[in-house]
């Protein structure tokens, strides 16, 4: 396999973008990525998109996006793995370039959630329809079941959950692309309205519109496009049981652990080698479970580590310097690519007030559903 | 919900029919073609007991449209004596009292009513077993 680099990145702000359609969002992000690299042609496009069909009634988004980007004729495929669609699109683009089949491939993600759809019902379609949704459980409900299991097994507290939201909002306040650029306090989090006990509104990522895109090429050609390429050291993906009922320990995300193990092996690196990471904090409990599955903390200790500042800017391993899904926003199909863009900015030294000093190796972890799919990438400054 | 889909799911929903792997003994609900643990084919039918124990639970405050009239309500992952796990609503209780270890009985109930001429959807809900009533 060839070595692969990210040579261009672009994204829209995340938020309620009423004046932009699904295609507008994609074109904004994709053009920004092409201009960042000074590229004007593509060999392939992957579009991460969870549910254009349900959110705006639009399927077949691959050719639609190629057309509107002025790239008719270019192969373009929509990739779906629920909220991990963006990560899965990046992985598909990575292997297409690594294989030698293509040189210039755009990995993108887009979601238009604020256009009148029943968002709760659409997101719930990433859970098991027959065994879970039929009975009235919601998506926050599934993570609430995970949270209660984590609290019962490991003694995780409501303060631990609140600490995740407080940290991510503090980071997001520094990110001009974030949907919610304000800090929140533990009291605000713990006093916000209940969604699914113990998860409150401020433990939950918002409903967002947005798009993100990165341009990939062989590392050997990277200097044609940028002075600061970022190498993709590894891509790992794994699946787990779709329904929470079919997992031995509901508080353990085995797809995340398996994807990470594969990525660490491919990169010949371990969790101790990672300087900064973007992880899938769709709900506060998800970040805690993911930190444990990525082996950044011992099992059951992520809450304590978060409260101790280990995962804050300036801590041992800053997590979600972008603000995470919680504060930056979570246009589901775009999230996996936006995570990669934050790490690219960190490794290029372009993260401004959010910069992690000396960051040379970063990790992204994107997750679908209640953890049935997960994609992990490891990126490195070259 | 389209009626063929509803009809296909009746054996599991109405009669709690599950499958037991003849090779490793794993019990899966509903049954499948392959055992998810060892990939053995030909799972043997087993009917689940109408009781179980809560593994983990939540109280849904922001509910899906069809369940809005019922909120807040408890949802639980329960394990039956056969080792099968299923997701159910817990009814006839103070939702705040449900937690890991709560003993429940499974009762045949209406799960939801679909609007616009849709069908009535039945299945099982859990109710707590109170001491002296088991």
Tell me what you see in this structure.
The complex is a heterodimer of chains A (382) and B (134). Chain A has 382 residues and is an alpha/beta fold. Chain A is built from 13 helices and 11 strands. Chain A has 2 domains: 138 residues, Thiolase/Chalcone synthase (Peroxisomal Thiolase, Chain A, domain 1), CATH 3.40.47; 237 residues, Peroxisomal Thiolase, Chain A, domain 1. In chain A, the strands form 2 sheets. In chain A, strands 3-2-4-7-1-8-11-10-9 form a 9-stranded mixed beta sheet, sandwiched between helices. In chain A, strands 5-6 form a two-stranded antiparallel sheet. In chain A, a hairpin with a 1-residue loop joins β5 and β6. The two termini of chain A are 18 Å apart. Chain B has a single domain, classed as OB fold (Dihydrolipoamide Acetyltransferase, E2P). Chain B contains 2 helices and 8 strands. In chain B, the strands form 2 sheets. A 5-stranded antiparallel beta sheet of chain B has the order 6-5-4-7-8. The chains are: A alpha/beta (382), B mainly beta (134). Chains A and B meet through α5, α6 and β5 of A and β4, β5 and β6 of B. β5 of chain A pairs antiparallel with β4 of chain B.
Summarize the structure.
With 382 residues, chain A is an alpha/beta fold. Chain A has helices spanning 22-37, 52-56, 61-68, 85-98, 119-124, 139-154, 158-172, 186-191, 254-267, 284-293, 302-307, 324-328, 332-348, and strands at 4-11, 44-48, 76-79, 105-112, 194-197, 199-200, 209-218, 230-239, 276-278, 361-368, 373-381.
């Amino acid at each position: 396999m060839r070595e692969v680099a990210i040579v261009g990145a672009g994204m829209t702000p995340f938020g309620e973008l009423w004046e932009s359609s699904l295609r507008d969002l994609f074109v904004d992000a994709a053009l920004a990525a092409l201009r960042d690299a000074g590229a004007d042609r593509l060999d392939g496009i992957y579009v991460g998109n969870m549910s254009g069909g349900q959110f705006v009634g639009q399927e077949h988004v691959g050719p639609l996006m190629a057309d509107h980007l002025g790239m008719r004729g270019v192969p373009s495929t929509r990739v779906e793995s629920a909220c991990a669609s963006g990560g899965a699109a990046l992985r598909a683009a990575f292997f297409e370039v690594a294989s030698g089949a293509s040189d210039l491939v755009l990995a993108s993600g887009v979601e238009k959630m604020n256009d009148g759809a029943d968002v709760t019902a659409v997101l719930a379609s990433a859970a098991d329809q027959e065994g879970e949704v039929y009975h009235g459980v919601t998506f926050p409900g599934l993570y609430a079941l995970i949270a209660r299991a984590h609290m019962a097994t490991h003694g995780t507290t409501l303060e631990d959950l609140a600490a995740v939201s407080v940290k991510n909002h503090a980071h997001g306040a520094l990110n001009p692309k974030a949907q919610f650029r304000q800090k929140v306090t533990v009291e605000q989090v713990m006093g916000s309205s209940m969604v699914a006990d113990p998860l409150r509104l401020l433990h939950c990522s918002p409903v967002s519109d947005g798009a993100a895109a990165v341009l990939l090429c062989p590392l050997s050609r990277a200097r044609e496009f940028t002075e600061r390429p970022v190498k993709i050291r590894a891509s790992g993906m794994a699946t787990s049981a779709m329904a929470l009922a079919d997992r031995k320990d509901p508080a353990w995300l085995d797809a995340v652990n398996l994807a990470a193990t594969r990525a660490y092996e491919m990169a010949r690196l371990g969790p101790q080698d990672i300087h900064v990471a973007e992880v899938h904090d769709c709900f506060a409990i998800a970040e805690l479970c993911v930190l444990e599955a990525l082996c950044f903390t011992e099992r059951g200790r992520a809450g304590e580590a978060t409260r101790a500042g280990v995962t804050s800017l300036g801590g041992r391993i800053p997590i979600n310097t972008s603000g995470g899904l919680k504060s930056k926003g979570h246009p589901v199909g775009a999230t996996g690519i936006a995570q990669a863009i934050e790490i690219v900015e960190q490794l290029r030294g372009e993260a401004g007030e959010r910069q992690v000093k000396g960051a040379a190796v970063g990790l992204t972890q994107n997750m679908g559903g209640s953890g049935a799919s997960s994609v992990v990438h490891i990126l490195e400054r070259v | 919900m389209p009626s063929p889909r509803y009809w296909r799911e009746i054996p599991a929903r109405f009669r709690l029919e599950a499958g037991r792997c003849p090779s490793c003994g794993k019990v899966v609900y509903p049954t499948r073609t392959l055992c998810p643990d060892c990939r053995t084919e030909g799972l043997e039918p087993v009917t689940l007991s109408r009781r179980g124990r809560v593994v983990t639970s939540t109280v849904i405050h922001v509910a899906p449209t069809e369940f809005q009239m019922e909120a807040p309500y408890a949802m639980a992952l329960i394990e039956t004596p056969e080792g099968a796990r299923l997701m159910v609503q817990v009814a006839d209780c103070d939702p705040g009292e449900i937690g890991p270890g709560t003993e429940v009985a499974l009762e045949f109930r209406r799960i939801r009513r679909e609007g616009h001429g849709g069908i009535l959807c039945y299945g099982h809900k859990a109710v707590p077993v109170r001491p002296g009533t088991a």
